[in-house]
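so my prof wants the structure for this chain in the tokens format not the other one, which i didnt know existed until like an hour ago. anyway here's the sequence
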Amino acid sequence: MDSQKKLKLLPATVPWQIDPGAPYLTLQKRPGTEEPLSATFIAYFKCDELSKRKNASPEMQVISTPPEFRAHSLEEKVPFRLVRVYFREGHSAQMKRAVADHEVIRESDYDWSAVQSSPKPQESVDQTVRRSHELWVMTGICPNSRMYEVENSQRPKELGLSDAAWRQYLLLGHDEYLEVIAQGWTWEAGQPIE
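here's what i got, hopefully its the right format
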């Protein structure tokens, strides 16, 4: 795909990242319709983990299927918790399998320049990881939340939605991803996963 025609991914500005190691991403639809209401997943809160531990490496955890989502205060600092994203005026959604074992979406199809954790020219993998870690800790915002708005997406128009308020969102899970067409979103913290 020509780099000038690649769609730019704009990461959600949030303190969490959809946990790429947890195979849990679910879609909730409005009862009796195909309209997306929300998506639920396990999120990683790096700053919460660092506030509890001096070591920057996350602990290895085995997570079984989480319980039903219930709202929970962010006052308790934990590295993993459920998060639910609510879609405003959700029109449609598709859950899709990863395109390959090593890629959830075909990464070369997108412009990643707005994703601050993307490698910079002449930067080693270690430098990229260190820079991303420092940015997350310094700002409290994850540099790559794994939830994106697709800038200037034509997908809403393909679905007959002419209003400019419609947006395409991608949420990347472990071995699947969710594509949603909606007019916006909000999120809510759920209970800790231990």
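also thought this was worth mentioning. Residues 3-192 form one domain.
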